[in-house]
Design goal:
This protein has 341 residues and is α+β, with helices and mostly antiparallel strands. The protein has a domain at 25-142. It has helices spanning 34-47, 79-85, 93-112, 127-139, 166-187, 191-194, 204-211, 219-229, 240-254, 282-297, 299-313, 316-321, 324-336, and strands spanning 22-29, 53-58, 61-65, 72-76, 115-118, 122-123, 155-160, 237-238, 265-268. Strand 2 and strand 3 form a beta hairpin. Helix 5 (166-187) packs across helix 11 (299-313). The longest helix is centred in the middle third of the chain and has 22 residues, at 166-187. The protein is globular and about 65 Å long.
């Protein structure tokens, strides 16, 4: 991996209300306990001048409250165990049995289930703070994706969209599809994560539909097309949160998954979380994501890129030899990865 870069700002820094765009960060890791991680985050925020408190919601999930941006969450990513951890253990033989079962489940879970840190939607000017927090967590022994073959851990980015128009969302999807092969290489997506369903690729037929030059849907049609092909959170770019923000009733026509949270944000799930690696950082994935936003904003370049990628998808020989990545790196990426402040 390349050395850590500064966190760049997007070209569009304001949302539709004129406020600074926000970004939420989710980090999955192991070899650190829930309570230790919660206390580390609280200590860090206190050092930043915030009066924060740590609250234990259960034995496996904690909250750090008092950040002006919202509450931070730390939890063991195991729903059943979290539910058990929120219940008091009754005295007596039955309580002892439940406690023993819980302890057994927890000991097994700690070897395969990540501890997850979820930030509130942070103003993007605070992203460098998150980099500093990551460094502090690393120093306390947290391990990430590549530490073990079974660590299918990810870093999820929840980017607030500057607008929820059909034109903007359609452009982001087109740009993401075109750049996906390059992003996957840049993220060095771990095999443990590739074989899980969490970041399944988009169906090729759906990609072809969106890239077609005559595909100019209104917002409802765009959402219905997406939901017909992708009624699941398990995509490298999960659009369900922002679609639920626009029209939750429509989303629920296609999926009743209670984990879908309505918010005006794209849920980018592709990057690993190699928090133990000093050469890994938030900036690597974030700065590469900005190439998607730049391509989406440049209509002439986007149309050309869609044309070329669609031709590639429709050519069996091109796909056999995987020439698209070379095309991206030679023709498009250099125009999209300029430094920004």
């Amino acid at each position: 991996m390349s050395e850590v870069q500064p966190v760049h700002m997007p070209d569009i820094t304001r949302n539709a209300e004129g406020k600074e765009r926000r970004l939420g960060v989710e980090l999955e890791m192991s070899d650190i306990t829930v309570d230790r991680l919660a206390k580390l985050v609280a200590e860090f925020l206190h050092d930043q001048g915030m009066a924060v408190d740590v609250r234990e919601s259960g034995r496996y999930d904690w909250e750090i409250v008092g950040d002006p941006a919202g509450d931070w969450q730390v939890e063991l990513d195991f729903g059943l165990l979290k539910s058990m951890g929120r219940q008091a253990i009754e005295p007596g033989m039955m309580g002892e049995l439940v406690q023993s079962l819980e302890e057994l489940m927890a000991s097994v879970a700690e070897t395969v289930v990540p501890v997850e840190l979820v930030s509130p939607p942070l103003p993007m000017a605070r992203l460098q703070q998150v980099e500093t927090l990551i460094s502090r967590i690393r120093k306390h022994g947290a391990k990430g994706t590549s530490d073990r073959w079974s660590n299918a851990f990810g870093m999820h980015l929840n980017m607030e969209v500057p607008e929820t128009t059909a034109d903007y969302i359609d452009s982001i999807l087109k740009a993401f599809f075109c750049l996906f092969d390059w992003l996957q290489v840049r993220c060095q997506v771990d095999m443990a994560r590739r074989v899980t369903p969490y970041i399944d690729p988009f169906p090729v037929d759906y990609v072809r539909l969106v890239l077609a030059p005559d595909y100019q849907p209104d917002l409802e049609q765009l959402m219905r097309d997406y939901l017909e092909f992708n009624p699941t959170r398990n995509r490298a770019l999960d659009m369900l949160p922002v679609f639920a923000h626009v029209d939750e009733k429509l989303v629920r026509e296609y999926t009743d998954d209670p984990r879908i949270k309505s918010r005006p944000a794209l849920h980018y799930r592709l990057p690993n979380c190699d928090i133990h690696d000093s050469n890994w950082s938030l900036s690597l994935a974030w700065n590469d994501w900005l190439a998607v936003e730049r391509l989406a904003a440049d209509r002439q370049l986007l149309n050309l890129c869609c044309h070329d990628y669609l031709a590639y998808l429709n050519s069996p020989s091109e796909r056999l030899f995987g020439q698209w990545l070379k095309t991206l790196q030679g023709q498009y990426v250099p125009m999209l990865t300029r430094s920004s402040g």
